[in-house]
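Bug #77: duplicate submission created two jobs. Keeping one. Sequence:
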Amino acid sequence: MKKANYLNLLLFILINLFFTSCDNPKLKPPREDDNSDRKEMGANNRNIDREFARELAREFGREFAIEFARQMKGSSNKVNMDFAMELNSTESPSGLTDGQGKPHALLAHCSEDVLDFYRKHSDCFSISSMDEIPQGLIWQDASEGKEFSSSKAKKGGTWQVYTNDFPRTLRTIGPDANGAFRSYLLDYNVISLVEAHPNSDSYYPGLAKSWAVGKDGRTVYFRLDPNARYSDGEKVKVSDFFFFFYFMRSKHIQAPWYNDFYGKDKFQKVTIYDKETLSITFYKAKPDIIERVAIRAKPEHFYEELDGEFLSKYQWIPEPTTGAYAALPENVDKGKSITLVRQKDWWADQKRFFRYRYNPEKIKVSVVRDHNKAFEIFLKGGLDMFGLAKTEFWYDKLPNDHKSVQNGYLSKVTFFNQTPPPSYALRINSQKPPFDDLNVRIGFHHAMNFDLVIKKIFRSDFVRMNTAADGYGGRSHPTLKAREFSVEQALEYFAKADFKKRGGDGILINSAGERLSIELLTGYKRYEDVLVVLKEQAKKAGLEIKLKVLEQTAAWKAAKEKNHQVIFSAFNSFVELFPRFWEPFHSDNAYEEEGDSKFNEDGSLKANLTTKVNTNNYSQTAVRDIDHLINQYRNEENLDRITEMSHQLSQMIHNHAVWVPAWKKPWLRLGHWNWIKFPEDWGPKETREYEEFQVFWIDEPEKDKILEAMAKDEPFSEKPTVRNYEKYKSN
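Kept job's structure:
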């Protein structure tokens, strides 16, 4: 009966539209006086302008058709869903504009430049109705999830930390942005749509209060938390996630890696449904789809649009943040320190999973260029924490019998975890002589005595890393091992490259009289002793190494410009199911020329290619077969096939010999003053840094007592202050 009523109503409207359309000048000759039929009567007679009536009828017809089609959807009656679109043909197919071509209400604030971008890419950006969200979605909100912080946490105090170089910019993207300070602005501060739980392989709400994965396995739906705000007080809008992709795909940010990573070939569509609901569609149904699409918001109101002045305009103006801490220009002491201040009205302050975190009132990041000097400052109480990964600090400079440890002033802590390790390695630029010869690269591997480094400097607490994909469970190669230190094998491969004769200083010389001498770049001054050991051991194999130790930012800059021969560096790991190969090993990140256009028919590289800068392919790897397998790997959805291809890629990269694995450690070691408190059972399963989840707090009264005890040279506590958090210790 209800359907019959719909049909009768539809018939009535269509008849009405037919008669009103008879006034359409396209359907009949124009009258001599077009205004003659516009008879005006008094307002009391409630007369309506005929043109307005026609438009009203058309609009009503459009809306009815859409509603009718929606209601009939799923019934046994066949309904042509294109019918609604035909009646509503004046509206943008993506819903970005209304029937008059005006921006949708959710985009009304956007600049014309940004709107034009959305229109040109309407296949990637769309606005739909809530009715188009699939039925039967299983929405999650982690309501049963366990918090990992402590209700004992106290707010207040200043957390004193250091960095070894003043940041070159307060941007978090673009040239010079990838320095150590960025973690405080972005990595450990800004909130994503959802956040990865450190202990349970699950997620908890961030900017989104709930989420659901579509049946296609590629689309994730999010409901924004209506309370989410930026540090400048502006509300997080659904359109900010449109803007995020506009921003990340812009050439003005000068960040090719981000341009590609967030490109339309991977993030295929963003759809807005109302002011708090959106979906993001990835190009494949990946096993870790939630992690991949849980992006951060970009404050459109702050940038509005981008142009060629982006880098300079925002060089020292930090972006408003959704996190607890904001960096303000007045708290920047150029060259000396930057202080971040906790927002007094932070929107997530009382949210579950956030309420006992981000506890210090301020974070003061001071510049201390020398690692040993920083340690001295730490021992005097000028820094609250200090990483003790280097064994000389753990065993020699702060041994268990150190007075500050024995008296209960300081704690030494080991946090065991199971996260993929930072990728400490020697990255060889395969396009720089003599490393353009594979034999030289393999010989170089055999000339690197990392086993001695681990034994002598790290007291055998570290273990050798084997591949570029260690720590990813089944995706890590089960049998592949790093090449061992061997003078004999090094000499054998160097000889294949024509370095056969030793000079008077023991360094090999080729038939052209060229010495086997290379420059090794690093920004890690704290590991200079490691490189000295490698340098001295390499002499045994006839290889001269010239060390070039720069400030970290300067070293990264040189490597980004691909001006190095070898760089010793590490990238932070990602807590994800499988490793990333495209960024460091695909030729599209080595040269500007795209795809197979870089290669001759036989697979060799063409001459006079244009080096691509500001990418993470520091080895300038450009191998057609590696490219093709990486492309397949990126497109694969099946976890077993992903695992298989990960093993194959690890083997191919090993054979290409551009990546000399260094070491890994199954723990984080930290020294901290005992006024810094951690949850009693703290020890995250998956973490990159001890401060990553910001669960500690400062006990100000206890700080006063410790400092008083130190002044009197009295013990503060008899409790042991050497602790191991072994919850996630693996065999």
